[in-house]
Structures are given as structure tokens and as C-alpha cells.
Amino acid sequence: MEKLAELPPLALVTFGVTIAIVFAVRHLGLWQGSQPVANAAPVAAVIVDPTALNKATAAVEGLTEALKLHARTMAENGEFVRRFGIEAERIREELRIHRELMRDRD
């Protein structure tokens, strides 16, 4: 305590303000921590409800199957478009040959 008296006035004021801040934060922290939490129980009841969980699981499984079917359908569609492109290229080539033959006849 005697050492504190030997400090310059600015250091004493800074020390006092620091101690006041520490006590204020501690007091306000304890005061806010003692407030009750508002209505957390209904959310837990919904999460724990097994029928809702089973329905959600069934819905997710249905969605997964639908997405798998969609992926297969899109793959088949891609294959169809690829084959269609090949056939269109063959038809184009046949038409080119036909035009050349018609040009040679004239």
C-alpha cells in the first residue's frame, strides 16, 4: 500500500480506473448471467419427438431416391443427346454427298 502512495497521480488515476472497470465488468457479467433463458424447452420437445423424426427420415429417404432417379434420367438423356448428335452428323454428311452427286450430274 505504501508503494501505491509513491506513484505519480496519473498512474494512480489509471490504476483506479482499471480496478473500476474490472469490478464493473464482473458485476454486470454476474447480473446478466442470472437472467433466465427464454423458452428453450419447446425446441427440445420437437427434436426428441420420435414420430416427427421418423417422418423426416422417411421424407429424406424419398428425396434421396428421387434425386437418384433424376440423376439416372439425366444420364440417359445425355446419352440420347449424344446419339442424336452422331446421327445428325451422319445425315449432314449424307446430304453433303448427295449435293456433290447432284452437282456432278448437272
Task: Please tell me about this protein's structure.
With 106 residues, the chain is mainly α. The protein has a domain at 75-106. The protein is built from four helices and no strands. The longest helix has 56 residues, at 50-105. The N and C termini lie far apart (121 Å). The model has no long low-confidence stretch (mean pLDDT 83). The chain crosses the membrane at residues 6-25. Keywords: Membrane, Transmembrane, Transmembrane helix.
Spell out the blueprint of helices and strands:
Blueprint: H1 2-5, H2 9-33, H3 41-48, H4 50-105
**Helix/strand/pairing class, anyone?**
mainly alpha
Low-confidence stretches: none
* Shape estimate: elongated
Whole-Å distance between the termini? 121 Å
Number of distinct helices: 4
Main sheet summary: none
Radius of gyration, in angstroms, nearest whole number: 40 Å
Portion in strands:
under 5%
How many DSSP-defined strands?
Answer: 0
The arrangement of helices and strands along the chain is: HHHH
Task: Kindly state the percentage of residues in helix.
Answer: over 70%
Mean pLDDT: 83
Give the structure's gist in a few sentences.
The chain has a domain at 75-106.
Question: What structural keywords apply?
Answer:
mainly alpha, 0% strand, 106 residues, elongated
